[in-house]
Amino acid sequence: MGAKVISIINWKGGVGKTTLTHHLGTGIMHLEPEERVRYFGREDMPRVLLVDSDAQCSLSVACLDVETYERLIYREKRETLNDIYLPYLQNDRWESDVGSCILKWQVRASNRGTYPTVDLLPAHQELIFMDMNIAVYKRASMVGSLMESDVYKFQVLDQILLQVKDDYDFIFIDCPPSLNFLTLNAFYASDYYLIPTLLDLLAIYGLSSIVSRVEEMNGVFLRSADGYTPTKLLGVVANNVREYKQEPKESQATIQQQLFNMVGDQLFQNYVTMGDGIPSANQVGYPVYALSGTNSKAKKQGQEMLAVLTEMLERMEG
């Protein structure tokens, strides 16, 4: 059936989209063998593709480190997601070698090695112009109502990933902080989506509008595109939670309750706490799991990320 595709979506910035994408994708490699049997039916490592669909390129840098990213993308001129979008828009019978844009054996596991079964489809900063390109582009062959004629503008990433879905078990997409064409392309291509948030009043304000908007787009795509399957919300994950005695501090506990009142059991029971473990790992270009033996906060955050991952897998089963 091909990979399960999961988008990490929020139209606010700084809520942990990239952090969650990076750590869920690589966290699968840190599950115990019995957990892999439990969730995947086998002990061997699943195959994962991380897709950076944000012009900030944060996921690409987090996976590779700054020096490696700049060498591969700017000096060696490796192709990125940006190079695949326009050919599809320009050609009804588009064909491209998506596999040539995917970086293999490059996603860092530590300073001593990489993940052999985690690949990266990187971003380029020029992806910032792609939303405008998609918006203004018009195929001369397209006729009909606005949505029916333009629905192909939301199907680009789906067509890109269709070439490689059978090569992976999971595909995680890091989306830009907006609900623009790039994010809606990711949504269209996905089986599921997750919403990260901070336990902050401004962060959760409007969160229900995100759910309403993407559900509205589900309806639009169902009416406009043959064979479309609605994308399901897996839930809302709290990030950077400040704790006191293993519980969210009082002010954040209040926000947590407000959030639960808004979304109910869509709120994940597990969350990720604030700490220097993840930022320290980001600085050197690998996930927090690599620091679990030397940094107590990193160990705690790594355990929390794995708890979020297993809850996600259980929700997918449910």
From TrEMBL:
The keyword Repeat does not apply. It holds the Pfam family AAA_31. The keyword GTP-binding does not apply. Residues 3-217 form the AAA domain. GO terms for molecular function: hydrolase activity. Keywords: Hydrolase. InterPro entries: AAA_dom, DNA_Partitioning_ATPase, P-loop_NTPase. This is p-loop containing nucleoside triphosphate hydrolase. It comes from Syntrophomonas zehnderi OL-4. The lineage of its organism: Bacteria, Bacillati, Bacillota, Clostridia, Eubacteriales.
